[in-house]
Amino acid sequence: MAIEYREWRDGDDLALLEIWGDPDTAQAGQFRGALAVSSNGRDGNPWRRCIVAEDVVDGVSIPVAAGVVYEASLHPDRLWAYIEVAKDHRRTGIGASLLTMLRREAENAPSGVTKLRAKVEPDTAGAAFAEAFGLTPIQRSRLVVVEPGALRLPVFPDKDYGGRPVSGENAGSDVVMDLATGSVELTDVVGRYYTSIHGWDSPGVLSVGQVQKLFLDELTGAHGAIVLRAQPGSAFGQGVAPGKKGRIRAFAVSYAPPADPDAAPHTQGPESAGPETPTDVFVGHEPALDADDAAAAVRDILSLIAYQHPVMLELDDSMTALRAAVEPLLESGMARLAGTETLVVSD
Fold first, then answer.
1. Are residues 317 and 175 in the same domain?
2. Count of domains forming the chain
3. Is there a single domain that holds both residue 51 and residue 86?
4. String of b and e for 86-123 (b: at least 16 CB within 10 Å)?
5. CDD domains, per this entry (predicted)?
6. 20 by DSSP, 3-state: which?
7. Burial class (CB in 10 A: 0-12, 13-18, 19+), 55
8. Which of 81, 95, 197, 239 is deepest in the core (most CB within 10 A)?
9. What mean pLDDT do residues 158-187 have?
10. What confidence category does residue 231 fall into, taking pLDDT thresholds of 50, 70 and 90?
């Protein structure tokens, strides 16, 4: 076996896919898309270095492995890195050589950032490789499905504004509201929440436009949001409706599933009954809330959105308020993991 290394060239993706086959993990499938021609970061693309390892057999060069390191506009304090080696060429030093080369390339990143990060699944070849070369977990992420009715609905105090009782379906209507995904108020709290839960890997300063593009734009699939507000107060005393809405305590943004052009037309009737597909949601809270209030707000809004239908959410270990609501449900069987855990590892 004679291994040679060179920069990535157009067409390498097709050659490597023939050798690699299907990705070992969901993360591998995603990061394969990052393998591309190197860039100096001056053509509108992020700075990137991509290296291919070839096995030369009888004078014929066959790509068997590749590695890439690149800058990211979001979470700019570390560089993303990914390495994949064909199964029959693993444990031969190719991955170690690629990592050494990528670390050397990282020293020339325009940002001056040299720390690497990657995503792996526990108990996989990728996780073992990362551990062997000093990349340790800095975050754990899980996809969790919360079953309908897993949490008891919250009870909101009725209000009596000007002698008009508010009860039944209108109870809590002053604190639970639909909100347009383009709302500046929603964009502000979503951006600050995302920043607050990523102290372990700062996203940098997020503009209103960035928050919209990442979480609330139509292209993300965002198609609805509800918020849980603080009880509004009135400057004119009890019995007089307040002039302002309470501040947002928690939010839930729902996302439409990707359109499937091959899906069969929907049919009604018993024959179509089956497990309901969970709705993908992003749940968070006002970062300024204290821990107990944040946990209560997140639990209340989660109980509302998962009252009749299952929801799926991403649960990072840094999301302490959401963990307080969801982890007891995992223990009781009212929530379940949707796939394998993901670890973000870094040197």
1. yes
2. 2
3. yes
4. beebeebebbebbbebbbebbeebeeeeeebbbbbbee
5. NAT_SF
6. helix
7. buried
8. 81
9. 70
10. confident
